[in-house]
Each structure stands twice: as C-alpha cells, then as structure tokens.
Amino acid sequence: MTTARTDQMTLVAFLQASNVSVYSGSWRYPSAATDYLDVRYYQRIAQVLEDGLFDLLFFDDRLAMPSIYGGSPDEAVRYGARPIKLDLSTVLGAVAAVTEHIGLGATYSTTYYPPFHVARTFATLDHLSGGRAAWNIVTSVNDAEAQNFGLDRHIDHDKRYDRAEEFVEVVSKLWDSWEEGAIVGDRDSGVFADPDLVHEIDHRGEYFTVRGPLTVPRTPQGRPVIIQAGQSGRGQQFAARWADLIFTSDPSLQLSQEHYQRQKELVTEARRDAQSVRVLPMVYTIAGETETIAREKEAVFLDELVHPMASLTLLSEVTNHDFAGHSLDDEVTDELIDSISGIRGLVQGIRRHVGDGKLTLRTLANHRATLLQGPRFVGTGAQIAEQMREWFASRACDGFVIAATHFPGAFEDFVRLVVPELRALGLVRTEYPGTTLRENLSLDRPENQFAAERRSIDS
pTM of the prediction? Predict the structure, then answer.
C-alpha cells in the first residue's frame, strides 16, 4: 500500500555546469547565454529558482567527455554534445554565496571518488550554505570515465552497486563521526572539543578501509539530503534504501504511475517511511503567454537545434557502445540489443512509449538527447499547471525535476508564468518554511549512529 504524501509538490531544478542545459541543443538557441564559464551565469540561474521557491537545484555530472562514439571525443566537441563539465563543488560554493534558502545538489560518483573525499566535500558545503547540501549518487556509466581514472574498462553494473552500498555506509559513518556538542570551545581550560564525542570509524569492508574521523564536524542537517536515480531493478532497490529524493525518467503518465507505486513499495520493504521519500520524474516545460507561442517554441526545440550526430554521440555515451559503424536509420534489432549490455531496459521503455513498430537508432538517440527524452508540459502557465496537477493528483509523482530547454529563459518563464498558477491551486509554497533543505522538505534530521549506540549501552 502506497503511503500518503504532502499536499504540495516538491520542485527541483536539473542543471549542468556546462555549455548546455540538460537539453543538448540549448547552446544553439538564438538568445542562449554564452557566459557559462562565468560564475555569475550560475548565480543568476540560482537566484531565479529561489525567487520561484524551488526546493533544490542540482547538477548532473560525468567524469569524461562523450568519447565512446568512434573512440574519440571529436564529435562531442564538434557539435557541443556536453564536452564541458565544470567542477561542481566550486560552482555550488559560488551559488551558496548569493542564495539563502534553495537546496544545493551535486552529482558525485561512488565509483571514482573515495568516500572520505565525498563526505568532506558535502559536509563542508552543508556548513557553508547553512544546511542546504544534497548529494546525487551515481555509479558512473562508461569506459571513457574509467580511462580518466587509470582503468581500462568500467566496472560491472551489479558490482558498481555492491560497491556503492558500502560507499554510502562509509560516508554515513564519517558524517556521524562528530556527535552533537563535540565542540566545547572552552578558552579558559584550553579544551576545544571532547574526544569522547569524535570517533574513528575504523571501517574495514570488501571495498574500503577507512579510519576516520572526518575532518568536518557534524553538519546543520546532520547528513546532507541524498538523491538517486537508479532505473534498473538493482538501482531502484538501492534508491529505496538510501535516497530522500528519487529522480525518475518515465516518458508517460501511466509509466510514471507504475514506477511510483513500485518504488514506494520498495521503500516500505526497506523498512523506511514511504511518505518521507519523494519520487520525482524529470519533465521539460515550455511556457508561453499563449498556447500558440508555446507550441512554436516547442517546434524549434524538437526540430531544429540538436544535430543528429550529437544525438548518436550521446547514445554511445549512455550505453557504453560505439555506434560509429551504424547509420541513424539502422533498425534496432534483437541481435543489436543482445550485443549491447544495458540497452535492453532503454529500448523497452521507449517501445512502451512509441509502440511496437520499427525502431531505429535515430528514434533511440533522439530519446536520449532531445526533448523526447521525457514528458513535455507545453502551453500557457495555467495549462502547464493543470498538466502538473494531473500527474501529482493521480499518484504519478510527489513533484517534479524540471529540466531547462535553454538559458536564460526556461526557468524564468516557469517562475513567471507557471509558479503563480501552481500557487493559486495550492500546489506549491508561498515561502520557505525553514532554514535547511531537510526542514524545507519536511525530512527528519538523521540520528547520529554513535550517539544512538551510546544510549543503547547506557540503557
């Protein structure tokens, strides 16, 4: 049985610290900003989102250029298919300085970063932002990333998740290694902190050996908020155990309803409160002062801006398969599916969306690189608000991850045209209720495991 949830939507903005938004043709939009290497670019976006009272913004990341296609990054560089990825801790530090309430999320890999580094990065961000940090957990996707970290090939899918399970356990211990009240700060006695409240974690596992303690005290949130986007069965189980926010990418209302119900069941099976875990599909919104204006903009994004080679390059990246020997008009056959590890789930999802007819690589690639990747809400502010209300009311989601078609403009249009309509429907807040991200999401502050162990012994 799916547990009830709050009456208001969770709103999350999905970004990349890159030359493009999530939509890979965004750099070609006539009014697209070109100062994506300037800190003020990201600060402007964050301030717009905070004006719209978004819960959180978070950045996607990959640790390599798309370079699986043809064994080279040339096509990604040539067509602007996400060749730029800035360091997210630096970007979010700058964003934290010009915002007060909105949550700040970054993608960090459990496959190529060590747990101590990740724990310290997010604990630092949580302190410096006043309790607004969120970690989007990924296990990484392809051989190009492996080759930037001294490996020939990417780790097997299930082994990556085994490693990720232990990784998050270690990070959680490190975040808890300072108990509340550990810092005494007694200048007269010279005692700075109580060593009985600061713990070496002494973790020795299959993948990691970490002594600890962390060099950052317990943070305002206790632990940063965790985001996860696993789509496979194993990924959904991992999300059910660890995630506060689960990011999905189902292309239709029906698929989202099915995914929502299954994910909530998995959360309950993991002995967690399903009400406290938000399931949030990624959507594009294209808002206009009239429906005609919005539809005209949609046509531009669908038909004119993503180069076909950029689409194929990004398909190679996400499937870890070199499609250089194929034409965009090649049919996706059973033989092709059997030859590519990890593509079957992608194909099945797209077939449920487009039907059982002939499926070509062009269709497959477009669903990874263009606005076909997720559902689109198009129209006036009132029309988009009603589409969002339908999804929310029918238990397809607990809110949305909004992806931008272009910068500037996409989020500005959403905040100006859609947010007032959502407020009129009572579906979003009119002010931030708390100071930390957990407070704004109505999430409990996690108990410190070392303090809990002491209380258990004392009792």
Answer: 0.93
